[in-house]
User: Fold this.
Amino acid sequence: DSGVTQTPKHLITATGQRVTLRCSPRSGDLSVYWYQQSLDQGLQFLIQYYNGEERAKGNILERFSAQQFPDLHSELNLSSLELGDSALYFCASSVQGERETQYFGPGTRLLVL
Amino acid sequence: GDSVTQMEGPVTLSEEAFLTINCTYTATGYPSLFWYVQYPGEGLQLLLKATKADDKGSNKGFEATYRKETTSFHLEKGSVQVSDSAVYFCALSPHASGGSYIPTFGRGTSLIVHP
Assistant:
């Protein structure tokens, strides 16, 4: 158990819909990362937050957004969903966010029908 | 930008065979290097890491040495077990002085170990 929790574990929705994925980092970790894992694209870094502020942005679509709240949990919002958004979404956390080990949650499996 | 290239799988071995999974990287500055492992149905977990040139990371019989001259971080194990079957990811985390915090992962190498 990494100490990172993600909810929900599975999510099935329809094209055009909007969903919110939630992540609680390990106690004491200030940095949260979001990743998308699919068979054809591998593990893609989406975005990183550090202590409530956006620190780094990767291959995140404009339809996707994220935030980190004062209690340090984070949410990833996916809107106008397309079939191609079906994937595993991982959250990870680390203490500060620079050159550190990341601790991954179990992931949310999203299926868009 | 930074990049990580690792050998494509699947790598199929018999139990007690020697394992090597190659990983090379490009990055500015002095990144930290990692190997993560993902078991079926789970998230990634750290296997080992190295933070500077010539460092050797090791864990559970796995080893990797940070080679700056060849920009490589190859994963090795002398005798694999069936329980080592998983997907292995090579990754780097840049030094912020290079202007980037973006971590970079390889595409993963699937390892299958037969009894």
About this structure: The longest strand of chain B covers residues 86-93. The radius of gyration of chain B is 14 Å. DSSP finds no helices and twelve strands in chain B.
